[in-house]
Amino acid sequence: MTFHSTTREQALSQLCSDQTSGLTGQQAAERLAEHGENRLREKPKKTNLQRFIDQFKDAMILILLAAAAVSFAIACVQGDPQEFFEPALILLIVIVNAVIGVMQESQAEKALEALKNMSAPHARVIRDGAEQVIEAAQLVPGDIIRLEAGDFVPADSRLLRSVSLKSEESALTGESVPSEKDAEAAIAEDAPLGDRTNMVFSGCSITYGTATALVTATGMDTEMGKIANLLEGEEEGQTPLQQKLAQLGKYLGIVAVAACAIIFVIGLANGLEPLSIFMTAVSLAVSAIPEGLPAIVTVVLSIGVQRMVKKNAIIRRLPAVETLGSASVICSDKTGTLTQNRMTLVKTYLDGAAGPEDVTDHCSPEVCRLLQYGTLCSDGTVVFHDDGEVQHIGDPTETAIVLAAHNNGMPKEQLNRDCPRLAELPFDSDRKRMTTVNRVDGKIIAIVKGAFDGIAPLCVRGDVTAAHRVNQEMSASALRVLAVAYKELDEVPAQPTEKALESDLTFLGLVGMIDPPRPEVREAVKICRQAGIRPVMITGDHVVTASAIARDLGILKDGDLAITGAQLDAMTDSQLDGQVERTAVYARVSPENKIRIVKAWQRKGQVVAMTGDGVNDAPALKAADIGCAMGVTGTDVAKGAADMTLTDDNFTTIVDAVREGRGIYANIKKVVGYLLGTNIGEVICVFLAMVLWHKSLFQSMQLLWVNLVTDSLPAIALGMEAVEPDVMDHKPKPRDEGLFANGFGVQIVLQGLMFGLLTLAAFLVGTSVTGSDEGGQTLAFLVLALSQVVQSFNMRSERSLFRIGPFSNGKLNQAALVSVALMAVVLFTPLTTVFGLVTLPWYLYLAGVGFTLVPLLVMELCKACGLIGHRR
Questions:
Q1: What's the first-to-final CA gap in the chain, in angstroms?
Q2: pLDDT at 871
Q3: By CB neighbour count within 10 A (0-12 exposed, 13-18 middle, 19+ buried), where does 383 fall?
Q4: What is the pLDDT of residues 783-813, one digit of tens each?
Q5: I want to staple 707 with a disulfide (CB 3.0 to 4.6 A). Which of 15, 287, 441, 804 is the partner?
Q6: Alpha-carbon distance 297 to 343, whole Å?
């Protein structure tokens, strides 16, 4: 059915729905079963089998498998059962590594899927006669939904009622200008999509106005669903850090392959068995190239992101995690972020009164009239649940008025029935007010509610001068003040305009609400300053109110400036650049002002986090290095533009997220340092042994076993290290600082050299004591593997391991135990012979343990001398 060419009544009848009560819960459940969830078809996910096969697409793995196949063929020709063990073990190790790779990918995907579900859009729907908020995926044809500026349209819908509605439909029609919508419009059946002005479409957004609409299509039946195939294939790209690591892996791969080629040539020249030396060279290349590093980084990022979720921050894009660690300026909204967002109406002022008076549950008739008009000119609602919970839906300043009216015997539902709304001009951030037209006691009244500065010039009756003084007094007490004015009309205008409804007003009074600062924010601001991060307050509130709260929280210090949006508008960019570092509070700002503030800080080389909640905040959120949308009060458009969503709208959550971001980056750095250092050590010891002694220090399966024991489990466990307590005690990492800055790259190479020389020393000791290369090889094998396990503990912190607690990372303890157990299986069971090893005298095992502790002693000495890290 072409719903755009039918009347509203026909559409409601066709879908068996009711505009007032909506569908019943049973109807919704039946239709959900019939039509399925309101989702677009997603690209099929890879099965575990496909992921498993992908693990074998690496060129080095394929070469290793080919070598194993040749070894297997030779074993078949020779007919010696023992010859089959090496290719079988190599195959087993490769398979186990592939399984671990699949597990890593699955873990990362599950984590990101969970985040995707948490950030799923919601919809305001009327069911069983009551308004409720549900996941957009649960919408069905016939549902009645409500839309307002900032919402994403959750499903194709026929408008039933619209007020000054505009929808941004560029994703569907290509039109860059928002399309004006009208529920009353009569549209031809063959009208193109862009001309269907009585419809709104899934995936588009509401930029202005309000509406009630009937859902006509969901999921793949929507217009967006019809072109879903064009939208599929969007891949989650690698983060900048992952790209750099992948590029680094290629460079290291070239070096490793070159070293292996030299080893192979030297081995052949010295009469070593070609297959044996080839297998060793290939195995070394496989072990030395950190091909799994980007995947491990993904796992570490996803684990860190999961930790952020527990702290009320949902990261939408992984690169934001890296950027968080560099944040140097946090520009935060005041209401709900720095304050509790629990507006309570505490003061009212009536025109002509001596001063403000306290709000009680038994207000005078005159004050009740002020509350009545304020409630009628509000879209916010308050829902009282059976368990005693009071749910505020909508703008908190409005719900404070609605609750005060309710407590004085004027429930909003009753007021709406007695004084129906006939027309309206929705609130917008430019006018800083909203207007409704209601029938009150038989009269047609235009009620205007908003900022005093925006309403006072429109009033021709009432003592605005006295009201201005009271407004200043109330604002100085950190109250959020709204003015209410009204105007009697002869009739409802056919086209409501500002000129018709918002002129020649009569001033009625002021309402003052308190939204106290969140107590935990003071400590968060203190931590910010300690961490070299500058907190800045940006608000639409009065400059006096904003300054009072900012000073209370420690954001506004002596010598700092507090300026208004009007003052900001009067500044040139160069003037703003000159003052931005001294300005702590921006009041009465517009969304355009936010963009200028962000860019001014960025011109200073700072990394800026910016909060926002409205549809007009989206450009500023995109312009900021880290856009933070409000999860409670934020619009869908703001959330879509942001990198991070705060599920509790709390400033402290941003600071916690920065702490986690720094911790995640530090953990990735530890993992990179650990893997590269140990891998370089493997290349050095094998390369030098071949160059100096013309001997193959390790067999292929020995190298692969060390790779299995040391590369996977300890590395991932190291990435789960808790955030260090002093991570917020130093300044942010510069924006362009590389991973290997401050001598970290040199440290890695030196640590690799330490492992290489230590392994060679163990080989010499073992050979000297046992009189055989096998004995030296066994001791070198033990030392190489276990010293790398010890190194995973060394890499936990730039501080002494004994200061942070040697075994305080439970995951790493478990990984180390598994690694040691795997080594014990090879060293103390019949597998010893199969691996080409021998049983050593007990004192050589003790010597081996001593060798493995050398990295601990060296690293502790370097930490004590300040040779490692920039923190002491």
A1: 72
A2: 42
A3: middle
A4: 999 999 999 999 999 889 999 899 999 999 9
A5: 287
A6: 43
